[in-house]
Amino acid sequence: MEIVMGLVKEGLWTCFVIALFAILIKYPYCNLSQFIALAAYIFGYSVLILKIKTMSKLLALFFCVLFSTSPLFAQEEAIFVSEAKETKEHPRLNVGDKASSFRIKDVRGNNVSLVKILKKNKLLLVFLRHAWCPVCNYRTHELLENYTNLKKHGYEVVVVYESNAANLLPYVKDLNLPYPIISDPEGKLYQTYKVEYSLAKAQASRTNKKMLAHYQKGNKLFGGKKYKKEKKEERSTIIPADFIICKAKKIEIAHYGEYIGDHLSVKNLLEQTISTSHGGAEHKVKTNVRF
């Protein structure tokens, strides 16, 4: 009986390890170094603590290697290739295209209408990711610090997040954001303005120096505060985008990011605006960045 129970335990352990590594290989944010590190940890744990027999460890290791070199792993590689191809062919709005109208309530319950905004101002329409995202927090502070300057030069700002309103509202209140914030968890506006979802670009962002710098600064700007995240948001592949919509309701600038945190430069936008108003004369703008 003891022999049978021992075999059952060994078999269950082997199945557990195989299933775990199969899931990890499929998981899009697990790179090779993480895979190896976790493999070493599990087998080290089995030797020192669980004292799993050698044959079972070797069997589990064999199947892990088999999985990592099988079509399952190749399928994951194919996902990256397919996603990269999709990125190149991603349909985009272009300069001169007509901007789609929208009339929607922001997280404070106020109506936000594109037509109404364009009667007085141009619109800087910004698509971010989530309230808890440090990179988005960095961009939010940049917009907040320069909002007065943007308004002075004829721009209104509207920012769209994928976070739901309940999770987004505490963040908006904490920063006392003066411009409309729209919650779009269903992604309707993202789809309307053809905002990109790219696994390949999201992956590449993890090693992008600018993104990492914005992540660190944005994380500090939270000041220790944490905002709720939904589980599905952790695997979001949204790549931010910015649009300038002129009073004629046409796209004047369409900026689609190449990585998470790649946004239209506020400084360049203001310099270009002032230069145009001065007949093309070069004019340097000092943006308000105190972080």
UniProtKB/TrEMBL annotation:
It is an enzyme of class 1 (oxidoreductase). One of its GO terms (cellular component) is cytoplasm. InterPro entries: AhpC/TSA (IPR000866), Peroxiredoxin_BCP/PrxQ (IPR050924), Thioredoxin-like_sf (IPR036249), Thioredoxin_domain (IPR013766). The keyword Oxidoreductase applies. Residues 93-279 form the Thioredoxin domain. Keywords: Antioxidant, Disulfide bond, Membrane, Oxidoreductase, Peroxidase, Redox-active center, Transmembrane, Transmembrane helix. It comes from the Bacteria. GO terms for molecular function: thioredoxin peroxidase activity. SUPFAM superfamilies: Thioredoxin-like. One of its GO terms (biological process) is cell redox homeostasis. Thiol-specific peroxidase that catalyzes the reduction of hydrogen peroxide and organic hydroperoxides to water and alcohols, respectively. Plays a role in cell protection against oxidative stress by detoxifying peroxides and as sensor of hydrogen peroxide-mediated signaling events. Belongs to the peroxiredoxin family. BCP/PrxQ subfamily. This is thioredoxin-dependent peroxiredoxin. It comes from uncultured Aureispira sp.
